[in-house]
């Protein structure tokens, strides 16, 4: 039902004035409906294909994420401050390459190629953990390279999703993608736990299996994902479908045999100066400014799991299963929250997600009990479902098509830098005054961040 609604979101609508068959209406989005196998179906297929890529990639990534706290804290005996430093690298190493990936993808209109390079780098890095051995500096280097691959791919991937769905279905498209992505995140820790259960603490086996799964994701991208505007049935700029004018329209992209050249030459040129001009867009700037303090007050998942494991005195061997609770809640809520965001407003859902995160922090301060564990993990997952894809769905339509990857990259870079600083700060606070002091400080910071962010997000409209 969800897929059929996404595919037919625009069906039956009357084309905008001046938009004939095969032409782009003034709003910049080609008319929907038309022949079978047209844009709607291909676009939905593109979102599903990208979701499948993310599913395999997240299985791979979460296998490593699930065992890293075990490996670093219990096998390499790192202190909370040292772990916070590496965890910050893990979170923030994506920052600079998010901007690079977004700008290059927009400038050369090669979003699939840039995203593919990011996925390939992360796949190779899974084997890099084997080469790093027990060297903490080398592990940090591999972590940085792995997450740099994520930074390179995220904005181009989200831009392809955004361009593969009509504006009114952005929340649903991202909800579908994040649901598939989270299904992988749910299976990753289970796979890691299974491998560890079979081979013991020989983490090399986890890294090898993780690399193999990541390669499958890269292959799916290469074979099934289509570049919006270049593949058959995917609407390109100026009404060109699949790089050619639709038959029977009686129109051409430009007069004479050089029509395509003229059409290509008419596209706005993507430059760094143009990327900076995005900040002049007030609704977009509000989203960017609002997300920075919220990210600065976000406790990383790894620290969340360590706190719960220590407070409830859970055996360390069960630590890789804690992410399963978060992923399960995220998976259940991703699509409903995406649909809700399209109906009641994306900013409302994002705000609700951070309120849920604040409640999660409060639970961490309660006396340890199984209900606290389950509730905290569930609220963290619901927070992800309400914020992760919904923020991109909120910001995407505020950006022009030719600079959408760049604009999304700027928002994601701000979030990554904020999360990196938050991990470092949390590690220092934990080392200085204990985990409870660190949680209280982050909860206070998040409350202040919400006061700042709520009015900005409420006014972030085209």
UniProtKB/TrEMBL annotation:
Q: Where is this region: Disordered?
A: 1-36
Any stretches that span the bilayer, and where are they?
182-199, 205-225, 287-306, 318-337, 349-366, 372-395, 407-431, 437-457
Give the organism, scientific name. Answer: Sphaerisporangium corydalis
Membrane topology category? Multi-pass membrane protein
Its lineage reads:
Bacteria, Bacillati, Actinomycetota, Actinomycetes, Streptosporangiales
**Alphabetical list of Gene3D superfamilies matching this protein:** MFS general substrate transporter like domains
| Protein's cellular compartments | Cell membrane
Question: Sorted alphabetically, which keywords does the UniProt record give?
Answer: Membrane, Transmembrane, Transmembrane helix
Q: Which residues form the Major facilitator superfamily (MFS) profile domain?
A: 46-461
Q: Which InterPro entries match?
A: MFS, MFS_dom, MFS_trans_sf
Q: Name one Pfam family in it.
A: MFS_1
What is this protein's name?
MFS transporter
By its UniProt entry, which PANTHER family does this protein fall under? C-METHYLTRANSFERASE, MAJOR FACILITATOR SUPERFAMILY TRANSPORTER
């Amino acid at each position: 039902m969800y897929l059929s609604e996404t595919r037919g979101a625009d069906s039956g609508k009357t084309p905008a004035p001046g938009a004939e068959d095969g032409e782009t209406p003034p709003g910049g989005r080609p008319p929907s409906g038309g022949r079978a196998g047209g844009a709607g179906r291909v676009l939905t297929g593109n979102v599903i294909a990208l979701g499948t890529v993310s599913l395999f990639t997240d299985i791979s990534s979460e296998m490593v994420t699930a065992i890293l706290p075990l490996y670093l804290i219990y096998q390499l005996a790192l202190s909370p401050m040292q772990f916070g430093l590496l965890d910050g690298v893990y979170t923030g190493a994506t920052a600079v390459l998010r901007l690079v990936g977004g700008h290059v993808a927009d400038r050369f209109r090669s979003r699939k190629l840039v995203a593919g390079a990011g996925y390939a780098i992360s796949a190779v890095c899974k084997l890099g953990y084997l080469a790093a051995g027990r060297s903490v500096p080398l592990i940090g280097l591999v972590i940085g390279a792995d997450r740099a691959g994520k930074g390179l791919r995220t904005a181009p991937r989200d831009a392809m999703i955004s361009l593969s769905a009509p504006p009114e279905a952005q929340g649903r498209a991202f909800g579908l993608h994040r649901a598939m992505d989270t299904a992988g995140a749910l299976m990753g820790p289970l796979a890691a736990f299974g491998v560890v259960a079979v081979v013991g603490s020989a983490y090399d086996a986890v890294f090898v299996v993780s690399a193999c799964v990541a390669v499958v994701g890269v292959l799916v991208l290469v074979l099934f994902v289509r570049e919006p505007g270049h593949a058959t049935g995917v609407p390109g700029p100026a009404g060109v479908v699949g790089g050619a004018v639709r038959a029977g329209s009686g129109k051409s992209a430009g007069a004479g045999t050089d029509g395509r050249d003229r059409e290509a030459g008419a596209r706005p040129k993507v430059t760094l100066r143009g990327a900076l001009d995005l900040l002049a867009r007030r609704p977009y700037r509000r989203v960017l400014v609002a997300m920075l303090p919220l990210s600065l007050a976000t406790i990383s998942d790894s620290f969340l799991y360590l706190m719960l494991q220590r407070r409830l005195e859970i055996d360390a061997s069960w630590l890789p299963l804690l992410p399963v609770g978060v992923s399960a809640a995220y998976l259940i809520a991703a699509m409903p929250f995406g649909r809700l965001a399209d109906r009641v407003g994306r900013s409302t859902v994002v705000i609700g997600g951070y309120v849920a995160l604040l409640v999660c922090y409060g639970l961490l301060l309660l006396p340890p009990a199984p209900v606290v564990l389950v509730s905290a993990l569930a609220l963290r997952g619901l927070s992800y479902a309400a914020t992760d894809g919904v923020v991109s769905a909120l910001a995407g339509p505020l950006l022009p098509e030719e600079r959408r990857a760049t604009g999304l990259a700027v928002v994601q870079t701000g979030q990554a830098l904020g999360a990196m600083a938050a991990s470092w700060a949390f590690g220092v606070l934990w080392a200085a005054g204990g985990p409870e002091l660190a949680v209280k400080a982050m909860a206070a910071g998040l409350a202040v961040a919400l006061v700042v962010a709520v009015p900005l997000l409420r006014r972030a409209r085209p």
